Amino acid sequence: MSKQKLKHKQKQKQKVSHKSAEILSQKGRLEITRSGMGFVIVDGDKNDVMVKPGDFDTALHGDIVRVKLVKENMRTGKKEGRITEVVTRKQTEFIGHLQLSTNHAFFVPDTDKPMPDLFIPLIDINGAKNKDRVVARLVKWDKTDKKPVGEIIKVLLPEDDNDAAMQELLAQAGFPLSFPLDVQESAERIPDILDREEIAKRRDCREILTFTIDPADAKDFDDAISIRELTKGVYEIGVHIADVSYYVLPDSDLDAEAYKRATSVYLPDRVNPMLPEKISNELCSLRPNEDKFTFSAIFQMTAKGEIKQYWLGKTVIHSDHRYAYEDVQQIIETKEGIHKEEILLLNDISQRMRKKRFEKGAINFSSQEVRFKLDEKGKPIGIVVKESKESHQLIEELMLLANKTVAENVAKLHINKKPIPFPYRVHDQPDKDRLAPFLIFAKKYGHSFDISSPQKISASFNQMLEDAKGKPEQHVLEQLGIRTMAKAIYTTENIGHYGLAFEFYCHFTSPIRRYPDVLVHRVLLSILNDKPIIDKKMEEKCKHSSERERAAMECERAGNKYKQVEFLKSHIGETFEAVISGVSSFGFWAETVLHKCEGLVSIIGLSDYDDFRHVESDYSLVGRRSGRTFRMGDKVTIKVVAANLEKRQLDYDLVLQPEKEEEESPKQKKSKNAKINKG
Fold first, then answer.
1. d(CA 373, CA 268)
2. Most exposed among 245, 284, 531, 568, judged by the fewest C-beta atoms under 10 Å?
3. 402 Cβ contact list (under 8 Å, min separation 6)
């Protein structure tokens, strides 16, 4: 074939590939850079689709969109496209400023992501004045509109900086700041009184001793425990969960809003709920001295935690008492208090179940929770670090048991030899490549790992955690160990839960604050009624729930970080003991021992002492001249030098402690004094 013919053929191929690219449409998430360029990230495709600013259609940063390919380089895989449709908006509420004139108003968003101003009709400014900081909602943006249309839903007062900061975090993460009127009205229309006909269809547990155990400031109690002795040594223990699915029906406006949010978000000074307060804090909350509809897992078991049989189904309960975790912990420690026999028995059973779980391969990472003491304006005036105690473990083990039992029950049933679509909660086995550097680091502290099987890896983790308990390196080994692990997700493809050592696991116990639990309730009920639901969109719902869970976690971390920065802002110039929590080429992060506040000690500040190089495999910075090492887990003293609330960033300086002089013998002191006198 001649060169001319070959070139002609290649041109024809390019034309065909360009033509086919033009009609190819993909769905993905749009990410807009600060420069204004967009990239659509498509699941399962390693190459993003580049979108120029003029081809966004009406899409904004974070939206799920359809993108039509207009160019594709078959050799490099680079793609270019234009957005044809917004499938789902990530964010519809924004924080910014109002520009108001006699005839029109515009909302200018506070964002580093390019987006157009919103046109605000004067009837929708909600009392806002020119230059006010406000919350605006995107109401309409048709392709024919020159500007998107919005409405002002709240004016932020200058003294409400805390409120504005928390709302901004929620809005940026794509969580609505308020419920639409139709959703609120739907919730308000639900009767407060339990339906008698519905009560008659349920197992009545109202005469059995029942109580809730929750944080002291909780309002949405979605689980309760009941206990009674059946025969000598055999007990009936009920795990009762708020029956949200009775009130929130599929395809209703309440359901659509709950699915959109998929989770409640817990910030230091507030909860942004998945469901309206009428449902989350009143109708479904298992408050004391009130009859409530529940979905229950009821177990017959011995005092040793051996399960004889179980029952799953709809119930009605009456909580006799509301405990805070601190109340239950006091009963466990003092052996005194209301219903002490039942609490102590449940604690003993839970601890036995916990021990068996770890023996079967569950990994025993300890957990610490940072809580803030806030003044009336939401400003932090103190930080408390709370650790998991037996009172927390009592509830945790019973919830794990219920979740595991429900998943096992559903997994038994197949239709046409296929499993029923179900939102399992799965956790993959460790990736050996991610694990490798951690194993080298752990070995430096004397901890060796057997990696011959996933079970041996979990046993090695537990041995390391046990051996490191109380030692300086404990926290850093736990942190790094957790980072090597895969992230738990929701999916219909069950691969088991590695961290818990469960073959089948799901989330059944928190439907007030997690949408997957609502899905679990619906599928379980359909099976119990012999009318199994086959939801072909279940995997899509699982992916959405996992994505919203990650967004909520990041939002919660950002909220905690904001409060930590705000707290240390009033302690600039003060010194604190800290532990190195991360290392990079531009410095190291240190976390204060007292408050768990993390800040950066810059490599520039360290240059006063030496020229430091980053040793990635050792998680350390090493001085080229002195050999001085700063390694993860090392204790240091830091000074707070800057606290930037806007960036949620703390800057520390290293404070070198004077090295202790070695004890000198009388002979050494005599020789030293002689030299001084001679000098």
1. 9
2. 531
3. 239, 241, 297, 508, 509
The CATH number linked to 625 is 2.40.50.140
Residue 607 structure tokens: 């240059």
Residue 326 in tokens: 């601190």
Question: Alpha-carbon distance 604 to 588, whole Å?
Answer: 11
82 with 98, same domain: the answer is: no
Quickly list H helices, 412-514: 432-444, 454-468, 474-484
pLDDT of residue 667: 47
pLDDT at position 146, please? 77
Which pLDDT tens digit goes with each residue over 216-254? 888 899 999 999 999 988 999 999 999 999 999 999 999
Is the pTM higher than 0.90? The answer reads no
User: What's the CATH number where 102 sits?
Assistant: 2.40.50.700
Q: Is 174 left (phi over 0), alpha (psi -120 to 50) or beta?
A: left
- Residue 255 in domain: yes
Residue of 431 and 643 predicted with greater confidence: 643
- Three-state DSSP at 602 gives strand
Q: What is the DSSP letter of 486?
A: P
Q: Please, is 514 exposed, middle or buried when counting C-beta atoms within 10 Å of its C-beta (0-12, 13-18, 19+)?
A: buried
Sign of CA dihedral 123, 126, 127, 129: negative
How many angstroms separate the CA atoms of 17 and 80, rounded? Answer: 13
Token pair, residue 370, equals 């940072």
Burial label for 455, CB within 10 Å (0-12, 13-18, 19+), is: middle
pLDDT of 665 > 80? The answer is no
The DSSP result for 368-431, as a single string, is EEEEEEE-TTS-EEEEEEEE--HHHHHHHHHHHHHHHHHHHHHHT-EETTEEPP--EEEBPPPP
CA distance 128 to 151: 11
pLDDT band at 4 (very low <50, low <70, confident <90, very high): low
Helices (H), 513-651: 515-528, 538-568, 603-606
Summarize pLDDT for 606-647 with one digit per residue, the tens.
Answer: 988 889 999 887 888 999 888 899 988 888 999 999 999 989
Identify the pLDDT of residue 149. 94
Average pLDDT of the residues of the chain: 89
Cα maximum dimension of the chain:
105
Quickly count: other Cβ atoms within 10 Å of residue 171's Cβ: 23
205 and 312 in a single domain? The answer is yes
Same domain (yes/no): 122, 209: no
- Burial class of residue 206 in the structure, from the number of CB atoms within 10 Å of its CB (0-12 exposed, 13-18 middle, 19+ buried): middle
Q: Are 592 and 576 in contact (CB under 8 A)?
A: yes
Domain stops at, among 166, 184, 202: 184
What tokens appear for 155 in the block? 């004016």
End-to-end CA distance of the chain: 96
Is the distance from CB of 297 to CB of 528 less than 8 angstroms?
no
Confirm if 305 and 356 have CB atoms less than 8 A apart.
yes
Three-class SS state of 314: strand
Instruction: Report the sign of the C-alpha dihedral through residues 162, 166, 171, 175, in that order.
Output: negative
Q: Where are the alpha helices (DSSP H) in 181-322?
A: 181-188, 196-201, 244-247, 253-261, 277
With 70 as the cut, is the pLDDT of residue 428 above it? yes
Closest CA to 82 of 17, 134, 161, 24: 24
